[in-house]
Amino acid sequence: MEIKVTYGVGEGPTELAAFDKALFDAGIANYNLIRLSSVIPPNSMIKVGKIDWNDKAHGDKLYVVLSEKIETRPGKEAWAGLGWVIAINDSCKGLFVEHHDGSEKAVKNLIEKSLGSMVKYRKDEYGPVQMKVQGARCKKEPVCALVAAVYKSEGWD
Predict the structure, then answer these.
(1) pTM of the model
(2) How far apart are the C-alpha atoms of 14 and 136, rounded to whole Å?
(3) SS3 category, 78
(4) What span, in angstroms and rounded, lies between the C-alpha atoms of 106 and 7?
(5) What are the tens digits of pLDDT across the range 120-152?
(6) Are 74 and 138 in contact (CB under 8 A)?
(7) Domain extents for the chain?
(8) Which residues, listed in sequence order, are joined to residue 82 by a DSSP beta bridge?
(9) Are 48 and 27 in contact (CB under 8 A)?
(10) Which helix (H) or strand (E) holds 104?
(11) What digits encode the pLDDT tens for the residues 37-57?
């Protein structure tokens, strides 16, 4: 399975409008998001890069691991990030974590700490921590930063 890690930022007159703009920037605005926990199935490959699925299938289900942060205070920052590790064997299974905070450094630190802890009590050996973080600075209107791991889309029929 190919899991696409996409990312975006948005600004708008409300927090919800900023979130929607960030989804649009990430290429996944016109889906009904179904949030997943953070387990990467066997035989998965992670690809990082923005996608453009905004006009692909309006209203379909989209399975995602999502990290988002909204900031409403001018001068403050919103940072969101996903981190992951992949098992060092032929299974290509792994783990995601999602964190958000007010600085890039804080988000990266939280990702490192969480994954560092999570791999300690699992029997597989894992490769290095990989991550994608995204940030935005609030100027006047609310901003949203997000990173999403997109597993698959699915229609309703």
Answers:
(1) 0.94
(2) 15
(3) strand
(4) 18
(5) 999 999 999 999 999 999 999 999 999 999 999
(6) yes
(7) 2-154
(8) 98, 132
(9) no
(10) helix 104-118
(11) 989 999 999 999 999 999 998
Q: Is the dihedral of CA 88, 106, 68, 17 positive or negative?
A: negative
Q: Which CATH superfamily is domain 2-154 in?
A: Pyruvoyl-Dependent Histidine Decarboxylase, subunit B (3.50.20.10)
The pLDDT of residue 33: 97
What tokens does 48 get?
Answer: 């990082």
pLDDT at 91 over 90: no
Instruction: Compute the distance between CA of residue 8 and CA of residue 78 in angstroms, rounded to an integer.
Output: 12
**Alpha carbon distance 134, 111 (integer Å):** 13
Phi, psi (5° rounding) for residue 58? Answer: -65, 120
The per-residue b/e assignment along 10-28, b for 16 or more CB within 10 angstroms, e otherwise, is: bbbeeeeebbbbbbebbbb
Place of tokens 């990430």: 26
What is the per-residue pLDDT for 90?
A: 81
What mean pLDDT is reported for the chain? 96
CA separation for the pair 22, 24 (Å, rounded): 5
DSSP element (H, E) containing 23: helix 15-26
For the CA atoms of 1, 126, 120, 3, the dihedral, rounded to the nearest 10 degrees, stands at -20
